[in-house]
Design brief:
Blueprint lengths: L5 H28 L10 H55 L6 H22 L20 E3 L5 E3 L6 E6 L2 E6 L2 H6 L8 E5 L8 E2 L3 E2 L8 E6 L7 H6 L4 E5 L5 E7 L5 E4 L2 E6 L7 E6 L5 H13 L5 H61 L3 H25 L9
Antiparallel strand pairs: 1-2, 3-4, 5-13, 6-12, 7-12, 8-9, 8-13, 9-10, 11-12
Length: about 400
């Protein structure tokens, strides 16, 4: 038969009240903080899940910060290129104006001066820096000024070919910088497929059109050679005047077509090349059609300025001037097209950022809801439990107070 002493009974009552007090304190702490778990031992599975969810939420927040940083940098680049496009438009307007025979050497010199200022403005814009003093168009060498003048008066690129990217989700990144080489250097001259040039020793008044290429274009260097000879024509034809004909020869000397009658402005078509020549070439004059090559924007402006500053008092000089201006205007058009292509890519990147920002926000909201379910307290349930635990503790304390003084001696 076991016996329970008064001291043992009191000790068990005290331990029970301490446990109730501990439970009440934990519930009070939960209500005060709004959290269910304070240490991993409270619920190891839930604690591990909370850590993973918070890591995911932190990554999403970083990706959203990256989206904002990328948007700021890309928007800055878009603004710079927009200004450059406006400057190219202005240079094109001035070039077309200068190519008119109503202009003279003096007025063209004024136009050349303004275009020189445009060239300088574009150079400054190509060397734009961001808020961190990093150059936009230097590739990965963003601390180095990308474009500079050489001692010979030309221009050089000091950056590299790298594209800088920023991570905007776990599996998605976006390009924020285009290297200056792609924007300002790698621009095809001529019409983008071939370039039309006059012979340096031409004596006639032929002005060649920049032309265009069709789908069946065969890339090669061709010569359009003019001939005005009385050989192989009858006396009747001689009486009408010796005809001007031309032939087309490829880079191997093979004659593509020969003895074709020339008519000013009439289409000249061969191997996918479509062009025309206005004016009247002389016997032996020739024009070259060769594949387009990369030409930087600054060289295009240099060629334009050089053409505008040339003197054109004689007929031959005038024809050379118009041929040079036609090429320069066409090269400007190619430069503008390249800028628009780059701006199109930038617009696509901004759309990517917008869409990913929405995705990240939605994902972040979902993670927060899940984290709230795992971590946050149900206040209604907790308050109800707190009241029950408080009532239970008070009852235990009152009962202990009444019982602790009980003894057999009270009944004797």
């Amino acid at each position: 038969m076991s016996r329970i002493s008064s001291s043992q009974l009191q000790r068990e009552a005290i331990n029970s009240m301490l446990k109730q007090h501990e439970t009440l304190s934990r519930t009070q702490q939960q209500v005060a903080s709004g959290k269910k778990i304070f240490k991993p031992s409270d619920d190891p599975v839930a604690a591990s899940r909370i850590v993973n969810l918070k890591d995911t939420l932190s990554a999403i927040n970083q990706h959203q910060s990256n989206v904002e940083a990328a948007r700021a940098r890309i928007t800055l680049s878009e603004g710079v290129l927009s200004n450059i496009v406006d400057l190219i438009h202005r240079a094109s307007e001035l070039s077309i104006q200068a190519n008119n025979d109503s202009q003279n050497d003096e007025t063209r010199s004024y136009i050349a001066a303004e275009i020189s200022q445009i060239q300088e403005a574009i150079l400054n814009l190509a060397n734009t820096t961001d808020s961190n003093n990093e150059y936009l168009y230097a590739g990965s060498l963003s601390r180095f000024k990308p474009f500079s003048r050489t001692e010979s008066g030309g221009f050089e690129y000091n950056g590299d070919e790298s594209h800088r990217e920023i991570q905007i989700s776990r599996s998605r990144s976006v390009v924020v910088d285009d290297p200056g080489s792609e924007i300002f250097l790698e621009i095809k001259n001529g019409n983008g497929t071939f370039n039309a040039l006059e012979g340096l020793d031409n004596t006639g008044t032929g002005i060649i059109d920049p032309g265009q290429a069709s789908a069946n274009y065969v890339a090669d260097t061709y010569a359009i050679v003019f001939n005005q000879s009385s050989e192989n024509i009858s006396d009747t034809e001689k009486a009408k005047g010796i005809p001007l004909t031309y032939k087309v020869v490829d880079s191997n000397g093979k004659v593509i077509s020969a003895d074709l009658p020339f008519q000013s402005g009439k289409a000249i078509v061969f191997n996918g090349v479509h062009t025309s020549i206005k004016g009247k070439p002389e016997d032996g004059d020739h024009f070259i059609i060769r594949p387009s090559q990369n030409q930087n924007i600054f060289t295009t402006f240099e060629n334009l300025i050089r053409a505008l500053q040339s003197k054109t008092p004689e007929a031959n000089d005038v024809i050379g001037f118009h041929n040079s201006m036609n090429r320069a205007i066409t090269d400007l058009s190619q430069t503008l097209d390249n800028m628009l292509v780059v701006r199109g890519k930038i617009g696509a990147r901004l759309n990517t950022l917008d869409s990913q920002e929405v995705i990240n926000d939605t994902y972040r909201l979902q993670i927060r809801e899940i984290l709230s379910d795992v971590e946050d307290l149900d206040f209604a349930e907790a308050v109800s439990r707190l009241n029950l635990e408080l009532t239970g503790l008070e009852a235990s304390q009152k009962a202990f107070t009444r019982v602790q003084d009980l003894s057999l001696f009270n009944f004797l």
